[in-house]
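Re: Re: ligand-bound prediction request (bumping)

Still looking for help on this. To restate: I need the protein modeled with nicotinamide-adenine-dinucleotide bound, output as structure tokens. Inputs repeated here so nobody has to scroll up.
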Amino acid sequence: MKNIALIGVGYVGLVSGACFADLGNKVVCVDINEQRITNLNRGIMPIFEPGLEELIRRNVKAGRLLFTTSYEDALKDADYAFIAVGTPSDVDGQADLRYVQMAAESIADVIDHYVIIVNKSTVPVGTGDWVADIIRSRRPDVPAFDVVSCPEFLREGSAISDFMNPDRVILGSTNPDAAEQVAHLHLPLRTTIMITDLRTAEMVKYASNAFLAAKISFINEIANICEALGADVKEVAYGMGLDKRIGHAFLDAGLGWGGSCFPKDVQALASMAEVESRHPHLLHAVMDINRDQRHAPLRKVEAFLGRDLRDKIIGVLGLAFKPNTDDMRDAPSIDIIRNLQRRGAVVRAYDPVAMERAADLLNGVEMKDSAYAVAEGADALVLVTEWNEFKNLDLERIKKSMVSPVLIDGRNVWDPVKLTELGFQYAGIGRGYEGRGADHPLDLKVNSGAVTVTVEDIQT
Ligand code: NAD
Ligand code: UGA
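Reply:
Sorry for the wait, this slipped through. Here it is.
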């Protein structure tokens, strides 16, 4: 059992703290947001993350997980101090490190014994050294400490399982012994642990996020070409992914990537390159494609309803940047809705968990309590976030309740052939054969998550 101070109780800090406690450690989480800490001590969660509430409740009850606003209390017995505060974009697109700086200064003010400071926030290359400098200049007589970079790779919506079953743990430090001690904490996760230098570890995080974002932008570019040429991107992606060198992950064409990480991290990496007079051409293309993709719903609605959308009612299904989270940071829904409103459309929306957060960001959007309420009297529906509950809607009921049966499937969850047969005017993303119905050569189960055609299927 180790003593861990976890600084910042957001998506990463809270999940990491609860998981480390579940692995048998004693974790004290500290945050400057008093309301968050008061609520957590009352059992009220600051975020929606599947399984988190129960994990926290169990570990609080066992006495392994505590919440405080006092750095002194959090660091009193700590062997490790994990920094998991936010690193949003500043106005220039660089990572804003003010919260990391505050956390480093607060650590410097209170430590009275050797502590390993572990940076879990996503921070520009060189930040580990900078954190050490801040601590030393804030308090020249500070006790010995080490800084280790331990970037986090979890995804919102599956954060607990991602934390507990990582593909790898990356650790970087100027002191390999300190990195080894952090490695010990991760041994129960039974995964590959790579130990490298600080800067390389910091770079692995940015390069990984940028690569995943590039994969998505790549398939979205292919989707646009598929639309023009009459091919189906869903099947193209499946065919590509069968090549083990390519793989199936992150090849879902749609409305592009959003959230609290890819947008700021790709931008921050490009900014880091530019500061060093390097020209990150590919990163810029990746961002441009993503920006353009958010215009697809408006273009597709216009193709059915014409350019004048004044007083047309457009229903939006899903607001969060991805399913299973309430996170609205840089959610594609925000730009998509604003584009529709600019054309005069009346927008109404439903999301299973993100409506409260979304209401603060979206003016003039009527929030409804179900997908069916959104569809009632609508001229068009746009699916923006692929929550499971949208996958099996009663589409006949939806169609009957709409003024015109226009359905824009921004995440390709429905089968274009079936939707067209039901009488919808349907447009997905990159589905060049949509609407051709019986012309399609095989009755492919395109929505089963995998195209399941066997030799027998073809012979019958
Ligand atoms: P978040 O905004 O959800 O939470 C940050 C928390 O830090 C807030 O509760 C805030 O009050 C607290 N905080 C700010 N300054 C503080 C200080 N000086 N002392 C104590 N607490 C302080 O952020 P997040 O989404 O959890 O992201 C945290 C970091 O992890 C970022 O660098 C992000 O890029 C990275 N990351 C995020 C994810 C994700 O899925 N959200 C995944 C991997 C990595
Ligand atoms: C992403 C990474 O996947 C995590 O490894 C990383 O830790 C995290 O960023 C981070 O650094 O914060 P997250 O943003 O939570 O995780 O969610 P993802 O599942 O990666 O989705 C990101 C965006 O890409 C979403 O808007 C999603 O809709 C979109 N996406 C994803 C696609 O459009 N197509 C895909 O095939 C996959």
